[in-house]
Amino acid sequence: MNSPLWDNIFKNKKTKKELEFEALKNANIFNNLTKKELLFVQTMVYLRKYKKGEYIFKKNNPGNGMYIILNGKVNIIDKNKKDEKHILLAELTNGAFFGELSLLDESPRSASALCSENTEALGFFRSDLLDIVNRKPLIGSKIVLNVARILGERLRMTNNKLYNLQKN
Amino acid sequence: MMTKNQKFIIKLLAYLAGIFVLFFLITKLTSLILIIILSLLLFTILDPYVDKLERYNISRGISTLLIILSLFLVIGGAIGGLAPIVKDAGTTIVAKVKNTNSNENSIENILKSIDEKIPFYEIENMDETIAKITPHINNTIKELTAFALYIGKSTLNFAMNFFVIIFITFFFLKDERQLKKGLINLIPNKHFELSLNLMDKIQKQLASYLKGQFLAATSVAILSSLGLFILNTFFNANIPYFVLIGILAGLANLIPYVGPAVGIVFAIIPVLFMGQENMFFIMILIIITFSLVQMTDNVLVSPIVVGKSVNMHPLAVFLVLIVGGSLLGMVGMLFAVPTAGIIKVTTTEIISNASKYKD
Asked: How many contacts does A have with B, using Cβ atoms within 8 A?
């Protein structure tokens, strides 16, 4: 029995697991990982559901890991030191990831992550990364290399900004 | 609308009810809880080895199976090797005690040899002492028989529980990830990162603590056996079952302060029964040997393998031993300090981490 309407609905309907896989595949941090390796990483991540107005983490909490947004919207905010009002640093949506610096050390979060819509996010933590390095060193080294690459890019950008500021 | 006080009272009552239900469950399900705790401990010890196997591209299931089979081999080998020695030692001790009872002269002989061979110790009025001791020995034989039956029954129970523990540990190891995810899913978002961090740190601390305890006990067992072997070889001490005594001393070493003394007693008892010429000299040598083993353990082995994370105050250790002993007897004393160590590690981690997650 063919029904163009129902066929289309079910064709485009992806399962939660497929969505998770897609999100992992598109995150820079998991670049160069094969399908099998990504499936292994998928067993290591945590799917969390947040309501609008709920914090994913707060500034100064110990950083434990990163999050990838499956769907929803997350505001990265900080407080203005003068009037204690929130300053919006970034607005992140589907596919974006944040907090990857915490994969390397436990230094406190530099800002808070607040959900501005109902949000689903995948959490990937330092303990899980170390677990991967321990159990599957090849996958672990690929991820660590990607983290290093992202941090290198950020450092380059910061250096450029600093250079421009000094020039002006 | 409820007032603040009413809310507080309801919360308090809910907490009290919760604690009551928890205590009720603990008392009703003690053996099940004990089995799960032991399985978790075994899981904590074995997990790093399963992880190591996984590095060689062996699936988690197969790695777990290999580790569990290796465990069976080690335990089976240990039981196979030790069972005849334990049986032999048990038979000899019971025969000696029975012989002592049937022939009052034997008691006299032992007392005389103690009187003669141990300086500064004199037994006054030998006949009266023998008359006093004989009923005690009769009681001891009755108790020994009952104890043997109890041991037999306990061994059977232990064997059954052991298989249950291995069965649960197998699934803990194989499905570690799913179980952890399932548990973490139950935790509200507010405490999610804190809980994950805690679980990870506690697991690491526990693994190193248990590994340390195991290594320290093994080193004491090996050193004690070696020490007794040297006494047998170079001083003709003729201490029987020195490997068994060494293993018992290693196990007893898990009980701080009391353990080392228990090890000495294990070694001295057979010497007393044998009533050799140089009994006093051998006893002194045994005490020196065990003191040297303890010194080596305290100065060289324990600081490296156990670490300082679970250092407990002697008074705390003493109280914990009393509680363990009154709850589960000798086994309770054996597990009391490691259990208290686990509780201390967990509480310390919770306190130090929870403060970091405050707003």
From this structure: 42
B151 plus B235 within the same structural domain: no
pLDDT at position B103 is 52
Q: Which of A52, A51, A38, A58 is nearest to A124 (CA)?
A: A38
Evaluate whether residue B269 is within a structural domain: yes
Asked if the model's pLDDT at residue B169 lies above 90, the reply is yes
- Point out the residue among A48, A57, A135 whose CB comes nearest to the CB of B55: A135
> Do both B164 and B45 map to the same domain?
yes
- Look up residue A67 and give its two tokens: 């999050």
In whole angstroms, give the CA distance from residue B266 to residue B287: 11
**What total number of domains does chain A contain?**
1
Predicted local confidence at residue B20, as pLDDT: 85
Residues B151 and B251 in one domain: no
Q: For B184, which of A46, A131, A136 is closest by C-beta distance?
A: A46
The verdict on a CB contact (< 8 Å) between A56 and B353 is no
CB spacing of A56 vs B189 below 8 angstroms? yes
Indicate whether B283 and B270 sit together in one domain.
yes
Instruction: Name beta bridge partners: A65.
Output: A125
In a domain, residue B23? The reply is no
Report the number of distinct structural domains present in chain B: 3
- By residue range, what is the domain housing residue A41? 14-167
* A6 within some domain: no
End-to-end CA distance of chain B: 29
Q: A128: Cβ–Cβ under 8 A, 6 or more apart, which residues?
A: A44, A45, A65
Contact between residue A82 and residue A121 where contact means Cβ atoms under 8 Å apart:
no
Residue B323 shares a structural domain with residue B299: no
Whether B99 and B218 map to the same domain: the answer is no
Mutate to test the interface with B, among A45, A61, A74 (most CBs of B within 10 A): A61
Q: What is the model's pLDDT at position B102?
A: 54
Q: Is B175 on the interface with A (CB under 8 A)?
A: no
Span of B21-35, B59-73, B128-142, B302-316 with lowest mean pLDDT:
B302-316
Residue B140: predicted pLDDT: 74
Q: Indicate whether this complex's ipTM tops 0.85.
A: no
Q: Which of B55, B189, B357 sits opposite A48 (nearest CB)?
A: B189
> What mean pLDDT, rounded, does chain A reach?
88
Average pLDDT over residues A20-29: 90
Residue B277 and residue B232 in one domain: yes
CATH code at A108?
Answer: 2.60.120.10
Rounded Cα–Cα distance for residues B263 and B358 (Å): 48
Does residue B296 sit at the A interface (CB-CB below 8 Å)?
no
Q: Is residue B112 a part of any domain in this protein?
A: no
B314 pLDDT more than 60: yes
Question: What is the residue range of B287's domain?
Answer: 210-305
Cα–Cα distance measured from residue A17 to residue A39, given in angstroms and rounded to the nearest whole number: 10
